[in-house]
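The aim of this short unit is practical: by the end, you should be able to scan a pair of folded records and say something sensible about each. We start with the first protein, listed as its amino acid sequence and then its structure tokens.
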Amino acid sequence: MTGRSSTPEPEPAHGPVREPAHQRALRAARQALRVLAVELGTPTEPGTPLLDSVRSPWLRRLPYVVAFAFTVPLLPTTITVLSHDYGLDGGLSGALATAQTVPLLLAVTRPLQAWWVIFAADVIGALALTGEDGVVERAWPWPPMEIVGYLALMLALSLRERRRTLTAVWLTTGVAGLLSQVFTPEGSNSTWVLMFVLTGVMLMMGATLRERGDAQRKLIEQETISEAERARRTLLEERARIARELHDVVAHHMSVITVQAASAPYRISGIPREAEDEFGSIAATARESLAEMRRLLGVLRSEEAVQHDGPEKTPQPGIAMLPKLVEGTVRAGVPVELALPEEPVALEPAVDLSAYRIVQEALANVVRHAPGAPTRVSVTPAADGARLTVLVVNSAPSAPSAPLETTGTGHGLIGMRERVRLVDGSLDTGPLPDGGFRVAAQLPLPPLPGPASSLSAKDSHPE
């Protein structure tokens, strides 16, 4: 004998103690009730009327009209049915009817709070009817007028609350109807299943309508944002294009300044040493400015141009090239009449380029949107020599023809406005009564030299 006890000792547990099944079920039930209480106690946008985001003022008033249309007939009907048909006391009938119908007006702005009041009143009303003789062979626990008011409330609730809240309301309604069967009066017609099914259908329909409206609203918002982004991108592209063209114009003048300043000591004899140093400084500054400008504006070059053609070296066009542009447009099937000044007009490079591009964009719009339309192009300096008028007018096509493009990004008009704004001019565009279109730009001209300017020059440099 060893003296050990014959009864085996329990071995220590090495793993977690497993919770009994009834405790797990109890904990899950408490968690479900907690979630249910949170969903039923957290309204969405309280105080905001239904359909408040709709643009039409008539649709914004519609929830108030519907709530009033349900409340006014349901209140006296409920009082009458409860007191006469079910035999309930008159005062209690009036109190229950008021609590079951008047909160429908509150449902326009706070549907979840209205549901708490109406649901509690319906449950209290069902308990009050259990001891009445009039409940025999009648609907219970939800009389017909209570079902109608409750369904109207479900519509308002589904248009505001999220799906989890709607599910909680539906389940609470079903549980209340199921528990009511414990107190079912003898001989009554149970309506809890009908109420449960109709409530689910109404909530699902309302939630579907709300989600569809939200999707359409988000789609409209996205289209608006996309349109704004597209307009902004078009504007940036046109500005980049203008910057590239102006780079070529300015680069030409800067190159001329550099060459003239660097070659001045060799072209002009007898220049003092200080003047040579000044010319050298001017040439160095011009070279640095040209290199810096090319670095800053080089990012505006398209990748395709950099990869294939390198920097643009083609001279920029002006009004002298308008006849060639018009000739190409005529070959495209658009009859164009061109009127240019009889005498050459001295234009700044930016103005000359802007005038050409405005005519180019206008004729391109005619080809795209009104093929075959007779068009007149005129470039006319004002009598006082202060402005240059660029006018492009097209009438409606003589023969009906489908436009090459029915919609556009507005790239041409944006480009015209940017070019005109760049040179401090003005632009007027718009349709004509006969179905045509008009583009009129006023561009500034450099001041003409005159006696006054010569006199001021002499005064500024006295001998």
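Turning to the second protein, read its sequence before its tokens, just as you did above.
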Amino acid sequence: MSASRRSGTTDELGPDEPEQPERDGADLLAALLDGMDAALCAFDADGVVTHWNREAERILGWSAAEAVGRQGFAGWAVRRADAGEVEERLLSAMRAPGRQVHEFALLTKDGGRVLVRTQSAAVRGPDGRPAGVYCAFSEVHAQIDLERSIALSEALLEDASWGVVLVDVDLRPAVVNAHAARALGAGRTSVLGRPLGDLLAQGVEELESALTHVLAEGAPPGPAEVWVSVRTPEGERRRCWRSGFVRLASPLAEEPVPLGVGWLFQDVTEGKQAEQEAALLRFRTNQLHRAARAAAECEDPAEAAVVHLDFALAGFADHALIDRVVGERGHRAGDLEAVDPEAAGPVRLVRVAATPSGAPGPSVPAGTSGMPVRYGEGHPAVQCVERAGSVRASAGVRAVPAERVREWATARQWPADTVHALCAVLRSRGRTLGVVTFLRGSGRSAFERSDAVYAEDVAVRIAAALDLAGAVEGRQGQR
């Protein structure tokens, strides 16, 4: 309970209680003082303590009844040797404009010392003259902690080298620092209050789910990596943001009241892409190694070619085909045709093996009918033979109707669900033996240059096996 000389613990009203309104005002003042988070005391013009609130009692241990009415701090709240200097500093606020800030040590009731930081200012009477001084004080370490928190907040929102976004309970940005604004491809003020879906083309659901979880359950134990697509004037950019989340609650409420979420993130796209590429390279290298060991155990070289195809298919494509060259453009090497670059006839290809088009499974040899595949002029496989190099093809960009995609695949003699194709030439001993074609459905991305390099590695192994198969069949035919 706070106390004052006017209406403290010693005041009593008479039976007629003519001063009731004044008492009500004093009670209100006492309630306000006791509700303050800072310790507060006040002195009259003679340096006598007139007010002392609960926070001052908590810090120093002296109650309002023990403090109010004392002359200064000497001998009880300050050492006598320091009392003159302390009182001079406090009372000098009556003669100075604005607030005065000081630091000095006060004594607790049990004899300890507490370093406090004070803010004092003059209290003026009805005539405008100084009538006393009020002094608000707090422990220095608590004040320093507060200042550090404010400084940290300002630094995060201005100078941080990672993105900082304060999201309100409606999951809309309320404060955005400069780094985050650049990452979102917009200005700091233009993103405020807008739904995240206006800023991100993909990854919104995952991000909003994380923010909702933090609001309900609190911060997750570790950072999360979120892939998003950011809308920019140049188009969509795929980015990976390593994100940390903290729930923001009001420090003024008795129970935590969520104010929103603090979202801190850093762009780790390049690192994640490098990790993914390294992992993919390791997997493909292992597949080539395993395929080579399995093919070495095949008695029939043609079977070894199919083994290489099956190992390459894993994680790389949905379907695959092997076609060999026959006809006027070729010259015979055993029973296997190879392209004669000086021949002028059309390229004719015969199916050697293919994966099942209806369901996943190992490649199946096509038999010995020798009927050419009905590839039209300009077909990617035909172009691959003519150029003796890899050819990539796709049904088109996004938003192509499914019926158009099926027509595109069917016209090229591929399974109807094909969207992307990659043809790699089969070369051995300086000759073109045929083509291996890898096909992907709509659930996969288009083939890239790195995919073509891998397909060419597989094609070299398949071509060597087919070349060996042709040589073996030629020797058997001569016997």
